[in-house]
Amino acid sequence: MKLNILVTAGDGIGPEVTNEAVEVMKTVAQMGGHTLEFNARRIGGTAIINDGTPLPEDTLKAALDSDAVLLGAVGGNEFNSLAPDKRPEAGLLAIRSALGGFANLRPAFAFKELAVNSPLRPEIIDGADILFVRELLGGLYFGKPREWNRTTGEAWNTMRYTKDEVARVARIAFQLAQKRRKKLTSVDKANVLEVSQLWRDTVIEVAKEFPDVALEHQYVDAMAMHLMNRPKEFDVVLTENLFGDILSDESGVITGSIGMLPSATIGGKVNLYEPIHGSAPDIAGKGLANPLGAILTGALVLRHSGGLEAEAAAIEKAVRKALELGFRTPDLARANPQGFPVLSTKEMGAKVRELLTAGK
Ligand code: NAD
Ligand code: IPM
Ligand code: MN
């Protein structure tokens, strides 16, 4: 098995965490006799500085020629005054759009060992296991018209979806629910927005193809509350682009840190893999970043793009083992009553590799 992976590490903690993910993937591939070929290209702020654009042609071409793209994160405070279409984030949106993946899978789960790090009570989160399916190519992020008219002092964005765009992501969510606990929660704002009424109507129609999956609807405001009050009751959560962005960050509270959460985007020409966190300028360059979200994202690359289930599971097991043995990065040790060892980004990556090799 040979897999050609493009790494777009990006900005801030992006390079720090993707380095560890790549090393872990190399270790597990070597153990199984598989060849992973890694190439690197610029994206985001580093590409603006070096190439004058957040998504250089050369990066896009390499991405389209690869079997999978692993992205770190983009963005930095020095770019905050740029217009949205010039910012590092525009590079991310452009690569998402070019690769064509519309279903962004964001698993959020509670590790028993990290319960102490969550502000939620252990009995609330213990056993929580949610799969967010976030529509990634529509809604306010891409809808037109969009403009800031500085003369009139007005600005507008457009939340737009077609029935087909909703149906295709809904189908993926139902299929995934069939393989899990057969429950799907569709999140919208159908009490206010026409686009959400179309969303709900379409989801109800698609649900007829999946009679074994129980479907419920929640408004996004109430969902933000239910997620914190009773996270264990949710299985697959299907929602549009912006609502999914917000709710998946919120689910970092269930896991104990946003630094734990991976994602995979499927349905397009080339799958795109990214931890859900950003470039974290507040901790960048200090070795404080948690690489486990990126490492778990590496596991998703192997599972979804390489069909390497055993290797993916081995990475996930090594991550769990590191937590069981008490190893923590600073974000996982805000509450550390047992005085567990707190590791740097690189040390945590090395620990996962050590446990991978030991668990062979
Ligand atoms: P962020 O996710 O970068 O950080 C939010 C908070 O979580 C910060 O306190 C940060 O230190 C912490 N955090 C994030 N990842 C962590 C990790 N792996 N380990 C430990 N702590 C971690 O969100 P933000 O601060 O709102 O955004 C910063 C920049 O990142 C912005 O430019 C934003 O647009 C960009 N961003 C990029 C992506 C992406 O490229 N996929 C995702 C989200 C945000
Ligand atoms: C994410 C990020 C991106 C998004 C930004 C950086 C464009 O927040 O991946 O969650 O909003 O999709
Ligand atoms: Mn986000």
Helix content: 40-55%
The helix-strand sequence is EHEHHEHEHEEEHEHEHEHHEEHHH
- Arithmetic mean pLDDT: 97
Extract low-pLDDT stretches.
none
Bound molecules: nicotinamide-adenine-dinucleotide, 3-isopropylmalic acid, manganese (II) ion
The CATH topology of the largest domain, please? Isopropylmalate Dehydrogenase
| Largest sheet properties | 10 strands, mixed
Highest-level CATH class of the largest domain: Alpha Beta
Determine the N-to-C terminus distance.
19 Å
What is the radius of gyration?
Answer: 20 Å
Given the C-alpha coordinates, what overall shape results?
globular
Strand order of the largest sheet: 2-1-3-12-11-4-5-10-8-9
Count of individual domains:
2
Query: What share of the residues does DSSP label as strand, in percent?
Result: 15-25%
State the helix count.
13
Q: What's the topology here?
A:
Blueprint: E1 2-10, H1 14-32, E2 35-40, H2 45-51, H3 57-64, E3 68-73, H4 88-99, E4 103-109, H5 122-125, E5 129-135, E6 147-149, E7 154-156, H6 163-178, E8 183-188, H7 194-207, E9 214-219, H8 220-229, E10 236-239, H9 241-250, H10 252-255, E11 264-266, E12 271-273, H11 292-305, H12 309-324, H13 345-358
Parallel strand pairs: 1-2, 1-3, 3-12, 5-10, 8-9, 8-10
Antiparallel strand pairs: 4-5, 4-11, 6-7, 11-12
This protein binds nicotinamide-adenine-dinucleotide, 3-isopropylmalic acid and manganese (II) ion.
